[in-house]
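Listing S7. Sequence submitted for prediction.
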Amino acid sequence: MEYLKGLNPSQRAAVEQTSGPVMIVAGAGSGKTRVITYRVAYLIDQGVDPFNILVLTFTNKAAKEMRERISNVVGAEAKNIWMGTFHSVFAKILRVEADKIGYPHNFTIYDTDDSKSLLRAILKEQQLDDKLYNANFVYNRISSAKNNLISPAEYLQNEQIQAEDFSTGRGKLGEIYQIYTQRCFKAGAMDFDDLLFKTNVLLREHPDVLYKYQNKFKYLMVDEYQDTNFSQYLIVKRLAAINENICVVGDDAQSIYAFRGANIQNILNFEKDYPDLHVFKLEQNYRSTQNIVNIANSIIANNKNQLKKHVYSENEEGDKIKVVRAFSDNEEGKNVAEAIMQERALKGLNYQDFAILYRTNAQSRAMEEALRKLNIPYKIYGGLSFYQRKEIKDLIAYFRLTYNPNDEEALKRVINYPRRGIGDTTVERIIIAADKHDLSLWDVIVNAHSYIEARSAGAVANFATLIQSFQVMGKGNNAYDTALHIAQHSGLLKDLYDDKSVEGLNRYENIQELLNGIKEFSEREDIEERGLDIFMQDVALLTNDDNDKNPNADTVSLMTIHSAKGLEFPHVFVVGLEENLFPSQMSLNSRADLEEERRLFYVAITRAEKKLTLSYATSRYRWGTLTSCEPSRFIDEIDAKYLELDFKAPQKSVGGMSFENERKAWSTSTADTFSKPKAATGVKTTSVLPKAHVPSQGFKPSDTSGLQVGMEVEHERFGYGKVVSLEGNKPDIKATIFFKELGQKQLLLKFAKLRIVT
């Protein structure tokens, strides 16, 4: 068992404790996957039949990685382990036992779109208001009920649930849940949540089946146990009831999925279920520098509800954690993009060494635009590019149609969204009439009564009038006023506002962020025309998808912190650290919610290996109004000795860093508050004026026709620098150069007067 020699004492002890209940509290970067892998391998080496081992994960990727690692140790026997996600493993069991609960063995599994489509059909049949009974909301309500093991009958009988539904005007939710369940059953279908719900029903109502699997799975291991919900918890507890050889692995400090039903109490109270529990703490972080680990510890120490542990690192001390203040979200994006360019140029790094993490998807806009301006390739993870999101494309389709009503794709996208009584049949008739009379779709629409039967023509004519009113609004008004008018009067804004699901709130925030960007555009002083049509031209250039589709491409990673869990990067930027954004305004109502936000911040910090930068803006646009922002309380919670400020702090921060004082200052923020900041005594800053450059002896500009990226150059005034990019055609080639003293500048080569050094 040579593989055991590579483990530290805590890891090895956790691997070798194979009997009885075990909890492995695995701090960030502590080698959790290695421990799970070696523990399974050790069980097999000790004579346990792989068919008797069950390993449950939360992602197929994690299961695949573990199986491959186990196979490297024990060989082909790894194929016989029952290993996979909760849903995949229990779907497999349900296939075998389906007849016990009245389902065919080849039952269909509905995905989210299938489920929502069925719900929309039911809502239509029941003649219910699809705004009040939004399909997304209904789907999430049913999902939550199933994850808490509440059946339709129990839902209808629960007085508290019924009172809540009736108070919101949705008293029919229980009936919809019941009809939906009946329709799924009649169709021989289970949705994603049913795979856990029906497994619980199977194990509860059929003791023989429960006994069968209790004896089959003599050893259970559960990864990321802090992310389990009530349904998952109960399945695991039932299966482990006879042998109690159950090992759960997780980190309460990384429990960040309460909105999906995850219950942190499952890991915090695990010892109550198993009083003879063996607890092992993996506290050595192999991923991050000492400074990064130290600030993570100082943050999470503020949570009262946690399993105490002391994570440490024996890696290099590393750089201090830089805190950067910007005056706007756009400047924040610019700061991050320039820092990436600078670090990459000076240290010979790849773009894939960098990640930008944010609290909400809407924040990606400013980051994306800044990266594009510097030609930095990037990839959005865990979501679409900002301008590729459905709600953004829907509103932009209205913009496109306003300025070019012959744009057929835009027209077909929004003609019945939000719904206005123009169904697929009517659209088909419009297309047929256009083809027959050799007209554009718009020509038919504006003359609807001449080409379409009367019962449909009215709705189509009203749509034409709506678009024509947008065209009038677009003439002479700035981009923001026109865009806001279209968003409001199209009905799109109200449709998203009425959707109170998590997804609906995100879409609503994304529309707000788009309008914020348009507001900033309409207030620019460096351009003469600020109409929405001009903004659309910029967007068209901005959203050209020229990125390499190679998943291994050298790109900067952009993602929400939730999407970043389990990943790691050498350089990490955590942006938008402002009150009401991070922590989220919705998390400030209870300690439990605030502590989850703090755990989310902990997850963000611990993604970084070598360097971590924290960033916030003092102002952001909210619905077209420039609003002052306060720095996040989380920054205040970090021990100041680990931080380096990348700005001149107010004088109140004497001898250290107090964001509480800054927060008070910003509550009455004015434009002049930080226009001429005074340096704080004892606070290290980097915002100092560079020394004047003295040209080298005999300085003479070189012929730059052969200039290439990577070359070292000297400028008579700016000093020495490195060429990071070249763009354009002769004679108007522009060079982006990073100068050691001044940072990045873009110069027109024919006027630049550069001396090529190497």
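Caption to Listing S7: primary sequence and predicted structure tokens for the chain studied. DSSP finds 32 helices and 22 strands in the chain. The first strand starts at residue 22 and ends at 26.
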